[in-house]
Amino acid sequence: MKKRLSRWMFLPALLLLLAGCGPAAHIEKDQAFNFSNYKTFAWVDQDGAGRNDRNKNNDIAETNIRAAVSKELTKAGWSETKRRPDILLSYDLLVERSTVQNNDPVYSQPFYRTFYSPYYRRYFIVNYPSQFIGYDRSERTIKEGTITVNMIDAASGKTVWQGWATDEVNNRNISSKEIEAAVRSIFKKADLAKR
Fold first, then answer.
1. Per DSSP, what are the bridge partners of residue 135?
2. Signal sequence span per UniProt (predicted)?
3. Of 22, 36, 90, 170, which residue is the least packed, with the fewest Cβ within 10 Å?
């Protein structure tokens, strides 16, 4: 019994660790917006620029973002349609350079000193432990990728919901795994399944 119980004790710690590993997601929505009023969606270019849109520069990223968002919405019971959708979807992808400041604590080196005591007629070793001196501040340049998903009410043309996630990426183009993780965290924050 104890052996089985000890196996399950690590599960909450593992879940907390995994929950902190995804990109940070943020949500903004219209106060009147309710997910239960919408069931169909379609993809559009919000500005109508088509092939000149900066989102179109990377067709692979566009395909991956649309597939990841469609997957999350389909899991929540929505369906994609070309005829009279409830919601129009658009996205924005931005990869930019940013700097991160690191503040690493600095400690002095511990050392020992030897003293002779004439009273006891012997040597004593005194330990001086390391002490906090301050911080070593440094900066490094990183690439930060941000995916933003917009939901536009098809009837009114108003943006009713917006979600975005930002995370450090390895190169100029964001990978499919990074896209999936970002979109998953956005819709996890939106919590579509409960609505």
1. 105
2. 1-24
3. 36
